[in-house]
Amino acid sequence: MPVTRKERGDWQTPAELAQGVCRLTRKFIDPDAILEPNCGQGAFVLAAAKAFPDAKRIWAGDVNAQYVQNVKKINDSRVVVQKANFFSGRWKQVLNSQSGSILIIGNPPWVTNSELARLNSGNVPKKENAENLVGIDALTGKSNFDVSEWMMVEEVKALQGRNGVLAMLCKTSVARKVLRYIWKNALTYASASIYKIDAKRFFDVSVEACLLLIQFKPETDATLAPCPVYDSLESDQPSQSVALRNETLVNDAAFTDAFPELFQLNASQPQWRSGVKHDCSKVLELTRIDGDVYLNKLGEQTTLEPLCVYPLLKSSDVANGRVEPPICRFLLVPQTRVGQSVERLQHDAPLTWTYLQNHLDYFQNRKSAVYSKQTPFSIFGVGNYAFTPWKVAISGLYRTLSFQIVKPQNGRPVVFDDTCYFLPCQTKRQAELAKQILDSPIAVQTINALVFWDSKRPIKCEALNRLNLLELAKRLGLETQYRELFKHSGTK
Ligand SMILES: C[S@@+](CC[C@H](N)C(=O)[O-])C[C@H]1O[C@@H](n2cnc3c(N)ncnc32)[C@H](O)[C@@H]1O
Question: How far apart are CA 189 and CA 381, in angstroms?
Fold first, then answer.
């Protein structure tokens, strides 16, 4: 695929879908003016011109000069098309020059800022970051946001206090982020709804996508009313709802309003952790040949002391319940805490130290910026918690809620890759109690309210950490056992 198409998130909307969106939007607004700031080949300009005969002005812009030339051929005196980069703010000037009601409609670029960084593209807002994330979050990609998210937030801001509608096709995850931004920043709107669309059929992409439709009116107050989610543009009953509760995006406001004590930011004791992040599998991931002799992913045989070698489980193992010994994969874990020097290994495990030194270039060539300011051989996801003998683990990648008790193998704690999350436990009894709580119907319902199963990585550490295990234990009659077993985990 050409780079420009990728960096411009250029997936043109078929006429049938643009017409369907306009038909639905007509139920919400009969606009005086229409804006399409990323008009592409003009599917929405054409559909809106037909659907809204009373609109006096239709302004369209796109960064692609060729597209602009094509849209200029549309034979409608109300249509004005300009080559305009969204980030130049031209669309906002047009909006501010209009009185009356406004419809902003379209399908903004489907591309993330990290993809743009990979493509070395300048198609990003200047020094902006959709949710102002900084530090480690920014480095580890939590700040990864879609350019469309940033654009829609700007459009929402521009429609504050006006009569208007924003009707945008986007990834469903992006629609939720825009709503979260609105709710967290107390922006106002009159109503909001999400209508799922079939992205495979219309765009030939495998992603959950939707129409986000937000209606604005003057003198509305900020609201935390749930946003209904419809299964299609034609559905008349919502199948779900999205809301912000306890600083958390939830998909079942009725349940979370009834049981608000079951989830809060960082309520879980102990805290959930993610597995080891190293980006150096060729060197660190090993299979055992015999005793202390291992094969790395470069096909090299090597002998290593047991000190830093741990049995390793991956997401597919955890999701499929393959967690019982014998575990044949191993991970060389050179640090016991983030930032630790490996110099101690020169004395404590000289074979391991030599092996690491011989493969230094593999560590130095890791692309992720998280490693650049760290000591050589740095990894993440290490600390006391990584080496507790027992764990309750779950895969973050699979669309199943399956918690597994993971026991030590030959006295060695098992470690995980960074797509798994786990609750560190000191004893078998702790792990069994935690699993009993997590498998209970009330915990499952709470988790289901916090997890968006249509996301690429549905289970997130952050969501698991919101589970209030103590409150769940109380409801299950397990409070005494929980307090007793986890008294050193920070529970009151
Ligand atoms: C997903 S396509 C959709 C096009 C059109 N809205 C439609 O629905 O068919 C995104 C469009 O955004 C345009 N685009 C990308 N970056 C842009 C920018 N910075 N300013 C304006 N348009 C941009 C692309 O050229 C492309 O036409």
Answer: 41
